[in-house]
Amino acid sequence: MKKINFKSFAPHILAVLLFVIITMGYLWPLLEGKRLSQSDITQFKGMSKEIVDYRESTGKEALWTNRMFGGMPAYQISVVYSSNLIKYIDRIFHLWLPHPAGLVFFYFIGFYILLLVFRVDPKLSIIGACGFAFSSFFFIILVAGHNSQSSAIGYMPPVLAGIILCFRGKYILGGALTALFLALELNANHVQMTYYLMLTVVILGIAEFIGKYRDKKIKEFFKAIIVMVVALVLALGTNITNLWSTYEYGKYTTRGKSELTNNMANKTSGLDRDYATDWSYGKWETFTLLIPNYMGGGSENLGTNSNTYKALIEKGYPKAQAEKAVKGLPTYWGAQPFTSGPVYAGAVMCFLFILGLFIVKGKYKWWLLSATILSFFLAWGRNMMWFTNIFFDYVPGYNKFRSVSFTLVIAELCIPILAMLALGKLFDKNVLKEVKLKALKYSSIITISLIVVFGLIGSMFFNYVVDKDNEYVTRGYFPDWFLTALQSDRPGLMVADSIRSLIFILITAILLWLLTIDKIKNKTIVIIAIIALVIIDMWTVNKRYLNSDNFVASSKVKTPYTPTEADLMIMQDKTIDYRVYNLTVSPFNDAGTSYFHNSIGGYHGAKLKRYQELIENQISKNNMNVLNMLNTRYFIVPDSLRNPVAQRNPKALGNVWFVNEYKLVANADSELTALSSFNPATTAIIDKRFETSVSKYQNTFDSASVIKLESYQPNNLIYKSKTAKDQLAVFSEIYYDKGWNVYVDGKIAPYFRANYVLRSMIVPAGEHKIEWKFEPSVYYTGEKVSLAFNILLILMVVGGVFMELRNSRKKLNEAAVKPKSS
What is the pTM (predicted TM-score) of this model? Predict the structure, then answer.
């Protein structure tokens, strides 16, 4: 029996070590015990506080929280799906490195696996892995705290690797890897990134179908599809609890269809068009893939050579103050409302991508080019609205996602793949030298011309002014002279980075040309040089956005919020379950208040649709009747010195109350409008669809009736009632019938919606225990199904790898005993 050649693993072991060194070298503050400060994770700490506290005290999942927007499911906040065993495999792939090093490491290793499947040399695969991993967007989202998005992006390449193996006829190994990595992709829980991966796979499938059809191998295509369908089912099954609950909940969130009929031209079956396309990439802005500061970057540090610095000095500002003032200025002048930084794919990678258009032949080139162009068109959003509308109206699921500029992740995936296929051809001895030189010539001319024409010469034809500049002046952020100086610095950023990209491309082109004409004999030297160029190019750009300044003491990350005097005063109120409205922050983009109190505001991208409509139509207009029905007992407002102070609202209606009467309305429009002029203490507004729920109620209001909240848990509320007659009760609890059940003395009872977002029921006469329980069947049923699929998936992966190793060893043994031909 032929032994396994462990030396063949050496290049891969060295690659892994190199990726760890690069990762920890970039994130070196982690070695000092510091942690990355991430704004969204800080918000997460606030929004998940009640859920985490409940888990730690009971060992169970709350599945609901009342800390945000009056109350909402916890599915997209913080839920532990204990049946999903593959989360332990995720930790293995991240090598248990400190956060976010594990995510960055897998950027590298995931793409390295994909290139190996493409049969790219391991040394060249290291270049590609560096080019992919250092895409600026991937580091910018880490600063923001988009960890699930980062994880989903990291798993995109290995999912593609498994799919490509399937199309190549490696059904067992390909199916096992597709199932595993797709399960991990779904486990990352960023549906938007998974959706963009799906678009990429669809285009790949079309390319494969055309290729197989031409080669008369259509049966092999459908065999691969069947294997992938099985892998998909396994991946979905392992994550069924989260996916099912998200699907169910999604229909009632801002991602779902509104029942309101106003402004129908702007509405879709998902997000409104305006809202979904807020972050649309400008057409010219697409050049940031090649030139990072083409649109001014994000908030850049201009330095002491800038016009802004000189203007400050001329106005008499001390040097130290001027140096501080020119840091983090809004240099961005693109089409988006603002941005944290550009989508930069690397000058070297872009050059090699264009090289691939000339030297790479076949289906993969057309797949990668088509997917890249599609990502451009979709990223332009409202700047190419006719195309965007096609996807909003006819492509299932597309209108559920915001920030269309995120589609550029497809380009960031495809560009380094084609770049490395091109480099592989350039290093291939079987490719004619004339073909290589011709491809190098054309790609160099095109790339350099793009930079010179649109970066250097083109810089003279923009005015570098955006609408937001006027806002800086009118709000008193900047004086006119300061803004003028800032605008005059923007062209310099474009020109400087154009020259920068030009230098990297020229050096790369010259190296490859010298190698091709045999002036450089050692390929390893060129490979090392290109690795260095890619890392230097992209590392230095990323350091503009993720650097040592973004790291803080670990204690600050663990406990990100400190209570104000207003918070401390409110927390002295030990009454069960009331709400707070914090007007010292942007209340509906803030989770800090939720860290300490049940808030009518919050921070989340998928709040309930009806609550968002209540915000837009009533709360934002300071309708006190609505605020009272939401049991808003405290307002946090600024005092004369802008310090937060707490004010008690004596008219807050409490947790529950009986009303004198109800008013039936025709539909959602009428229901929302009726809230503008009603007294919630005496009247309940009820949609006509719930008419049968109140048809037998006789309006027998009894002022002596009592109902009171006795016990509070986020998913379990116990009330005691004492009434002489049946009473109509309105609970200041958010209506969500996909999980909430009410029990009267242990027996389930009916309830319905009132006042657009609240729960209501007929409380029977007598003394009763009324208990609300959140017990969504999607969670409890889903967990059982998920466990079964997890076990099946693990067995399939282990079996698939075992069979592949056995088949490989069998082939090696057959080759060893095969007689040599004379």
Answer: 0.90
